[in-house]
C-alpha cells in the first residue's frame, strides 16, 4: 500500500520506534510547513492509497477527496475532529480510523507556560544573554488561585499540579465538571462572572465544538484582574476573534500564555499577539512530544495495518465499510 504522511514539520516521523511497523509498504513523508492549496494537496496525495494525518494540520474536504480516486483509508492520529469531513469520506467509501489522545504532554506544557509566565523567565534570560542582570521581578505561584474551565483529563492533571504548588483551584464548566471538581476537594465558581473575576491564573481546557466556539468573550476577559494570567493550550477558537488582543491592550488580563492560534502554522512574525510585550507564545507544542508521538502514530499505524489485513478496527465511519474502495 502507498501511504502518505503529510505535515511532518519536524522531520521526526521516520525516527519514531513505531515507524518500523510500516516495513514492506511504500511510505512518502511530507514536510511542508506552508499552508497548501487544493491543487497542491491533490498533487501531493495523488497516488496515496492511505493517508496518516497528524492531528488537525491538514483539512480534508469533499473537494479534495474528489481529486483522490486511489484513496481508501485515512488513519487519524488522535480523534477525528472538524478538519475532516467524515460524511464526505463515507459517501466515497473511504474508511476513517482514529486513535487515542493523551493529557500528559498538554498538561505539562500548560504548567510550563504558567511557571515561565509568572516568573517572567523569557525576558530575564534574553536580558542575561545581552549582559543585563536581574531586569524584572516575577511572582511565585503559591497562594494564587488557579481557575480551570473544563475539568476533564487535562484540567484534572492541572488541579493535581496546583495542589503540589499550593494553589487553591477554582473550577467552571458544565454541571458535571463542577460536581466532579467539588468531589475532588476543589471549589466550583458561584458563576461564570465570579470565575473570571476571582482567578489569578485562568486555564482554558475545553474541547472545541459549536457550543464552545467563541465561548470566551471580551466581557469575560475584562472581568479578570489586572495582574491575572490567561493560559490557552486548547484551541484559539474558544476565544472570540480579536478579544484576547483587545483585552491585553486594555490591561485585563495583565498577561497571556498561548500555544494555539486561529491560523496555523503562524508564520507571520508581525502578528500582534506574537509581538505583544505581555504575551508568551509557543508554536502549538502541546502534543508535540516523543512519547505522545509514539502513542498517536503507533495507534494510527496499527489501525492501518489492521485495515490492510482485512480486519478494520477503531473505525469512525462504519457505514463506509459497506462501500469501501477496493485496492
Describe it.
The chain is of the alpha/beta class and 327 residues long. It contains eleven helices and twelve strands. The protein has helices at residues 38-44, 62-65, 86-91, 104-119, 121-129, 153-164, 175-183, 192-198, 218-222, 243-250, 290-308; strands at 2-5, 26-29, 50-53, 73-76, 95-97, 146-149, 169-172, 187-188, 201-204, 229-232, 255-258, 279-281. Strands 8-7-6-9-10-11-12 form a seven-stranded parallel beta sheet, sandwiched between helices. A five-stranded parallel beta sheet has the order 2-1-3-4-5. Helix 10 links the parallel strand 10 (229-232) and strand 11 (255-258). The N and C termini lie close together (9 Å). The relative contact order is 0.15. The mean pLDDT is 97.
Oligomer category: single chain
**Strand order across the largest sheet:** 8-7-6-9-10-11-12
Query: How large, in whole angstroms, is the Cα Rg?
Result: 22 Å
What is the count of DSSP helices, taking H or I runs of 4+ residues? 11
Percent helix range: 25-40%
Beta-strand percentage?
Answer: 5-15%
Total number of β-strand segments? 12
Terminus-to-terminus distance: 9 Å
Low-confidence stretches: none
Order of helices and strands: EEHEHEHEHHEHEHEHEHEHEEH
Structural class estimated from helices and strands? alpha/beta
Instruction: State the shape.
Output: globular
The overall pLDDT average reads: 97
Topology:
Elements: E1 2-5, E2 26-29, H1 38-44, E3 50-53, H2 62-65, E4 73-76, H3 86-91, E5 95-97, H4 104-119, H5 121-129, E6 146-149, H6 153-164, E7 169-172, H7 175-183, E8 187-188, H8 192-198, E9 201-204, H9 218-222, E10 229-232, H10 243-250, E11 255-258, E12 279-281, H11 290-308
Parallel strand pairs: 1-2, 1-3, 3-4, 4-5, 6-7, 6-9, 7-8, 9-10, 10-11, 11-12
Helix pairs in contact: 4-6
Protein name: D-2-hydroxyacid dehydrogenase family protein
Family: Belongs to the D-isomer specific 2-hydroxyacid dehydrogenase family.
Domain D-isomer specific 2-hydroxyacid dehydrogenase catalytic: 23-317
Amino acid at each position: 500500500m502507498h501511504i502518505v504522511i503529510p505535515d511532518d514539520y519536524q522531520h521526526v516521523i521516520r525516527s519514531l520506534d513505531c515507524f518500523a511497523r510500516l516495513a514492506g509498504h511504500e511510505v512518502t513523508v511530507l514536510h511542508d510547513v506552508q499552508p497548501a492549496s487544493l491543487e497542491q494537496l491533490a498533487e501531493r496525495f495523488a497516488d496515496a492509497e492511505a493517508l496518516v494525518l497528524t492531528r488537525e494540520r491538514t483539512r480534508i474536504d469533499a473537494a479534495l477527496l474528489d481529486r483522490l480516486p486511489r484513496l481508501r483509508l485515512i488513519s487519524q492520529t488522535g480523534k477525528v475532529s472538524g478538519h475532516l469531513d467524515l460524511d464526505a469520506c463515507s459517501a466515497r467509501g473511504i474508511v476513517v480510523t482514529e486513535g487515542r489522545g493523551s493529557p500528559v504532554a498538554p498538561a505539562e506544557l500548560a504548567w510550563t507556560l504558567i511557571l515561565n509566565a509568572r516568573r517572567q523567565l523569557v525576558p530575564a534570560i534574553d536580558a542575561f544573554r545581552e549582559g543585563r542582570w536581574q531586569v524584572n521581578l516575577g511572582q511565585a505561584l503559591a497562594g494564587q488561585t488557579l481557575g480551570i474551565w473544563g475539568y476533564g483529563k487535562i484540567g484534572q492533571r492541572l488541579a493535581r499540579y496546583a495542589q503540589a504548588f499550593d494553589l487553591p483551584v477554582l473550577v467552571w464548566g458544565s454541571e458535571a465538571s463542577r460536581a466532579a471538581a467539588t468531589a475532588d476537594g476543589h471549589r466550583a465558581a458561584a458563576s461564570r462572572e465570579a470565575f473570571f473575576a476571582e482567578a489569578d491564573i485562568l486555564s482554558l481546557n475545553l474541547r472545541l465544538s459549536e457550543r464552545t466556539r467563541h465561548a470566551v468573550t471580551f466581557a469575560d476577559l475584562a472581568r479578570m484582574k489586572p495582574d491575572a494570567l490567561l493560559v490557552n493550550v486548547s484551541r484559539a477558537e474558544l476565544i472570540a476573534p480579536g478579544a484576547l488582543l483587545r483585552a491585553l491592550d486594555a490591561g485585563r488580563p495583565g498577561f497571556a500564555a498561548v500555544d494555539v492560534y486561529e491560523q496555523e502554522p503562524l508564520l507571520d512574525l508581525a502578528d500582534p499577539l506574537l509581538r505583544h510585550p505581555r504575551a508568551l507564545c509557543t508554536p502549538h507544542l502541546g502534543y508535540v512530544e516523543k512519547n505522545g508521538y509514539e502513542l498517536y502514530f503507533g495507534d494510527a499505524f496499527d489501525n492501518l495495518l489492521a485495515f490492510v489485513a482485512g480486519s478494520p478496527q477503531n473505525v469512525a465511519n462504519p457505514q463506509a465499510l459497506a462501500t469501501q474502495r477496493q485496492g
